[in-house]
Amino acid sequence: MINVLFFAQVRELLGESSLSIEAGSNTATADALRQTLAARSDKWGKVLASDKLLVAVNQTLCHWDTEINDGDEVAFFPPVTGG
Amino acid sequence: MQTSRILVQTADFNVPEEYQRIAADHQDGAVVTFVGKVRDFNEGNQISDLTLEHYPGMTEKVLEQIAAEARSRWPLNHLTIIHRVGTMHLGEQIVFIGVSSAHRKAAFAACEFLIDFLKTKAPFWKLESSDKGQGWVEARDADEQAAKAWEQ
């Protein structure tokens, strides 16, 4: 399973903070996982299509072609605004 | 002995106490601290409070990495990063950065580097409550540019 997390505006717009998804060919990379989730509904498609969306794999910010493996933690979130 | 103190907490912090911690060694001729606060206006909205969300686990990891990067660039002795999460009202403290070093240039540069990198790399998000309602704070290009300037 892949543990997927959502933060801030992404979490709020999707109405979910986490979910689990079976690892497979449709989750092979961060981008594949994004597209798989985006196919859930128009709302998910719209939120996950944002060109500002960031992805972290196992708590490290990554590029969209990063490989995802079974057991990984993948988080989607908007640009950070702390400090 | 060098110390790195990295905390993510809901509680407020005490600046004199934090200063004492990093200013205790006679080898350090310079102590630089920065405090970020909730200010009254942002993008024309009158702010009443901010709620800080973060990514537990990743936040601490990124702050550790930023601290290590600062130590690799400048000869620092003590280093403290405290970032609050949860709801903070107008005027409250959000973040504390403090460093000590033998000389001021390293301390000034490291402190500025730490806050510039924290603002663009650590997974914190601000939800703003203002006279116009609630909204997520947008990332600023100027912050991104400030962080990029350290990479040249």
Automatic annotation (TrEMBL), chain A:
Top-level lineage group: Bacteria
Pathway stated in the Swiss-Prot or TrEMBL entry: Cofactor biosynthesis; molybdopterin biosynthesis
Q: Name one GO cellular component term.
A: molybdopterin adenylyltransferase complex
One GO MF term attached to the UniProt entry = nucleotide binding
Q: Is Iron-sulfur among the key words of this record?
A: no
Tell me the keywords, alphabetical order: Molybdenum cofactor biosynthesis, Nucleotide-binding, Transferase
An example Pfam family from this entry, by short name, is ThiS
Keyword check for Transferase:
yes
**GO BP field:** Mo-molybdopterin cofactor biosynthetic process
NCBIfam families from the xrefs?
A: moaD, PRK11130.1
Family according to the record: Belongs to the MoaD family.
| The name this protein goes by in its record | Molybdopterin synthase sulfur carrier subunit
Organism encoding this protein: Shewanella zhuhaiensis
The major lineage groups are:
Bacteria, Pseudomonadati, Pseudomonadota, Gammaproteobacteria, Alteromonadales
Q: Which gene encodes it?
A: moaD
Automatic annotation (TrEMBL), chain B:
Which PANTHER family does this UniProt record tie to the protein? MOLYBDOPTERIN SYNTHASE RELATED
Instruction: Write down a Pfam family by its short name.
Output: MoaE
Classification via InterPro entries: MoaE_sf (IPR036563), Mopterin_biosynth_MoaE (IPR003448)
Subunit info here reads: Heterotetramer of 2 MoaD subunits and 2 MoaE subunits. Also stable as homodimer. The enzyme changes between these two forms during catalysis.
Q: Quick one: which pathway?
A: Cofactor biosynthesis; molybdopterin biosynthesis
Query: Which EC class, in a word?
Result: transferase
Q: Can you name the source organism?
A: Shewanella jiangmenensis
Which molecular function GO terms apply here? molybdopterin synthase activity
Family, according to the entry, reads as follows:
Belongs to the MoaE family.
User: What is the annotated signal peptide range for this record?
Assistant: none
Q: Which reaction does it catalyse?
A: 2 [molybdopterin-synthase sulfur-carrier protein]-C-terminal-Gly-aminoethanethioate + cyclic pyranopterin phosphate + H2O = molybdopterin + 2 [molybdopterin-synthase sulfur-carrier protein]-C-terminal Gly-Gly + 2 H(+)
Keyword annotations of the record: Molybdenum cofactor biosynthesis, Transferase
**Which CDD domains does the entry link to?**
MoaE
The name this protein carries in UniProt is Molybdopterin synthase catalytic subunit
EC number(s) of the enzyme? 2.8.1.12
NCBIfam families for this protein:
PRK10678.1
